[in-house]
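Section 5.1 Outputs to date
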Amino acid sequence: MLQTYQGSCHCGAVRFEADLDLSEPTYRCNCSICRRTRFWPAVAREGGFRLLAGEQELTQYLFNSRKNQHYFCRHCGVRPFGIGTETPIGKMYGVNLGCLEGISEEELSRLAIVHVDGMHDRWDSAPAFCGHL
């Protein structure tokens, strides 16, 4: 069921709200940026993400294919969200679950996780090893 969640970076300079269905899978990826930042997103569809404060506090990072936009708070370094432009559902927002407010550790522990092999551009397959993700 779609629910609106509030979230922020660590220092609070960047604030957002997102409409998420946490009964749907969340994602863990082994690509170089997700692995290094430990990014754990849930998907918000286009129109389901609203940046409330801190646009000027964000730094954008593009790499490799330059298709996905990775945003970091320039003060605390936290990655609250990213934008995917060429996905099976079109434009989408990957919302960092660690940045959501009002969600308990117990709730997080029950979320379904799909592991994807971004390291080898096999987005429809799980990597051979994913326990560390």
